[in-house]
Amino acid sequence: MTSVGRFLVLSVVGMFLVNSEVSAGMFGFGKKYDVQLFPAVEGRIARDGVSMEGVTVIREATYDDAEVQETTTDQDGYFSFPEWVTRSRTPGRPFVEDRLRQVIIARYEGQTFVLWYYVTGRIDGEKVVAEKLSTLHCDLSVGEIDHHFQKAENPDFTHNISSICRW
Predict the structure, then answer these.
(1) How far apart (Å, rounded) are the C-alpha atoms in residues 65 and 142?
(2) Is residue 58 within 8 Å of residue 68, measured between CB atoms?
(3) What is the pLDDT of residue 71?
């Protein structure tokens, strides 16, 4: 085999390794990681304490791209979303500062209400965030405020979350 032939064969084999899961395991190229966009979410929407049926609830996560899910409250004002995990190559990329943006809004009679707005660098879930998202008590007559919850993973810092919901 000529040197040009060997070069072509080695180039093809090299490209295969770089673009395959084999190389992902051996060298980290192209490896995909689990990214928790949201833990499970459960909540209730009311207005002046009265349950609200038929409110549209939209959950958006922005990591590599913006992704959206939607549901509607039941007759007792309850809504829920399952845990949301995606696969991404971003965590393995050098010099990339990861940011995950979580937003949950309610739309009712042409108005938009922020139930949850949070930005984090964590992709593996956070204890306090999971706890809060499992018990959203939202009243459309209450104003949005910024909440500050101590991080279980690092008590010197807080989670800063905007919401009309209470816990």
Answers:
(1) 31
(2) yes
(3) 98
Residue type, 54: G
Rounded CA separation 42/40 (Å): 7
Query: Residue 14: enclosing H or E segment and its boundaries?
Result: helix 3-18
35 vs 122: CA distance, rounded Å: 9
Reported pTM: 0.79
Tell me which fold the domain 33-166 belongs to: Immunoglobulin-like (2.60.40)
Per domain, the residue ranges of the chain are 1-31, 33-166
Question: Exposed, middle or buried by CB within 10 Å (0-12, 13-18, 19+), for 5?
Answer: exposed
pLDDT in tens, 69-100: 999 999 999 999 999 999 998 887 787 777 89
**Coil vs helix vs strand at 54:** coil
b/e 91-123 (16+ beta carbons within 10 angstroms → b) = eeeeeeebebebbbbbebeeeebbbbbbebeeb
